[in-house]
């Protein structure tokens, strides 16, 4: 029997290349390896359907936001503006937003969380394109660069996200719900949430990072419960009824409650800080939280190749950078103001804004009690 010859340098190099190529093909047994090949499309049509639903849903949401913005601008230009909730155009935007959110909800039933959650960048970039096209906003060089980076990141996300296919039944959700990974994750999340809530409520610390971290912690529960509810509804329609299990209603209650409190903290952040800052930071925090939730609860990256995970994370980074560039320093719409601002007159230093109420005794006065204030008030008394 002849002895086996030792492997030469050429054989070792070929083996290394074969191992590297497995990171870009779906020939490997791990669920997270893949590329955009014909076989990939054949095996992942269900995921692509979920991606299509998410992209269309986010585009519809961006259209609805711009319609609502346009309705507010129209109402502000009227001599006697009526409440916005009496505008048919505003309600049309609300209806479109509901349709877009339904598309996102259905997408979680067909594709992993780690694939659907980062696609929220489509809504931000789509809104920028629509506002430039229809609302005549300025198109900046940073907008074009940000859109290009966001599209490139989306391509990498779709290409290298985990292709694991799960039938989300009630028993599957129950199994994951009592798993030790999720229990440890929930303990840590509740602990962090209580600490941040203590600083927010008791200490009065309303920093944007604290508010948006609270939103992100709630968002992780939202995406877990949304995928569970959507997956069980999809399973009920295609295989066996799952809506009779108590876990479905538990997840439904978690979904509603987490959404309500998430909106509360997000509204607080938008009141205190500029939208151009809140939008990109919230998108980053939400996406990171959703990815971690999908990895821990649904184990979506189990068996994924290292290079695939790296390219996926690089795609997330590109989408984050694109959203930041699109929203950075974007000019806000200036509606009619109730005051006249003389603070920008060259060579003049004014201490406050003069109110145009000519019937008031304080008309034209400054609030610091200076000599000019006294002289103006004295002249009015003499008149």
Automatic annotation (TrEMBL):
Stretches that traverse the bilayer: 46-67, 88-110, 116-135, 144-162, 182-200, 209-235, 247-266, 278-298, 304-326
Ordered alphabetically, the record's keywords are: Membrane, Transmembrane, Transmembrane helix
Could you confirm whether the keyword Signal appears in this record?
no
Which is one Pfam family of this protein? Mg_trans_NIPA
- Region described as Disordered: 352-383
Query: Under the cellular component aspect of Gene Ontology, which terms does the record hold?
Result: membrane
Alphabetical list of InterPro entries matching this protein: EmrE-like, Mg_trans_NIPA
Source superkingdom: Eukaryota
Q: What are this entry's molecular-function GO terms?
A: magnesium ion transmembrane transporter activity
Q: What is its main location?
A: membrane
- Classify the protein's membrane topology as the record does: Multi-pass membrane protein
What subcellular locations does the record give? Membrane
**So what family is this one in?**
Belongs to the NIPA family.
Q: What is this protein called?
A: NIPA like domain containing 2
Q: Where does this protein come from, organism-wise?
A: Cebus imitator
């Amino acid at each position: 029997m002849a002895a086996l010859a030792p492997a030469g340098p050429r054989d070792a190099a070929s083996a290394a290349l074969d191992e590297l190529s497995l990171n870009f093909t779906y020939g490997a047994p791990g669920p997270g390896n893949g590329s955009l090949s014909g076989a990939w499309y054949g095996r992942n049509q269900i995921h692509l359907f979920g991606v299509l639903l998410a992209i269309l849903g986010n585009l519809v949401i961006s259209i609805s936001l711009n319609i609502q913005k346009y309705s507010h601008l129209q109402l502000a230009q009227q001599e006697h503006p009526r409440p916005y909730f009496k505008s048919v155009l505003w309600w049309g935007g609300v209806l479109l937003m509901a349709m877009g959110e339904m598309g996102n909800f259905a997408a979680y039933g067909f594709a992993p969380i780690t694939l659907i959650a980062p696609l929220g960048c489509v809504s931000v970039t789509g809104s920028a394109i629509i506002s430039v096209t229809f609302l005549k906003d300025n198109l900046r060089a940073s907008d074009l660069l940000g859109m290009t980076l966001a599209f490139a990141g989306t391509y990498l996300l779709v290409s290298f996200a985990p292709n694991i296919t799960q039938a989300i039944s009630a028993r599957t959700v129950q199994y994951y719900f009592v798993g030790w990974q999720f229990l440890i994750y929930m303990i840590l999340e509740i602990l962090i949430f209580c600490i941040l809530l203590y600083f927010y409520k008791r200490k009065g610390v309303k920093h944007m990072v604290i508010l948006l971290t609270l939103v992100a912690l709630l968002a992780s529960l939202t995406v877990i419960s949304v995928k569970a509810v959507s997956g069980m509804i999809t399973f009920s329609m295609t295989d066996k009824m799952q809506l009779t299990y108590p876990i479905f209603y538990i997840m439904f209650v978690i979904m509603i409650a987490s959404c309500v409190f998430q909106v509360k903290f997000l509204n607080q952040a938008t009141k205190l800080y500029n939208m151009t800052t809140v939008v990109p930071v919230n998108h980053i925090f939400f996406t990171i939280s959703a990815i971690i939730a999908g990895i821990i609860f649904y184990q979506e990256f189990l068996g994924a190749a290292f290079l695939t995970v790296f390219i996926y994370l690089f795609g997330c980074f590109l989408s984050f950078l694109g959203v930041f560039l699109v929203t950075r320093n974007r000019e806000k719409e200036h509606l009619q103001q109730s005051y006249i601002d003389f603070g920008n007159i060259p060579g003049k230093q004014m201490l406050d804004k003069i109110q145009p109420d000519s019937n008031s005794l304080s008309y034209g006065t400054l609030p610091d009690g200076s000599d000019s204030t006294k002289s103006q008030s004295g002249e009015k008394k003499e008149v």
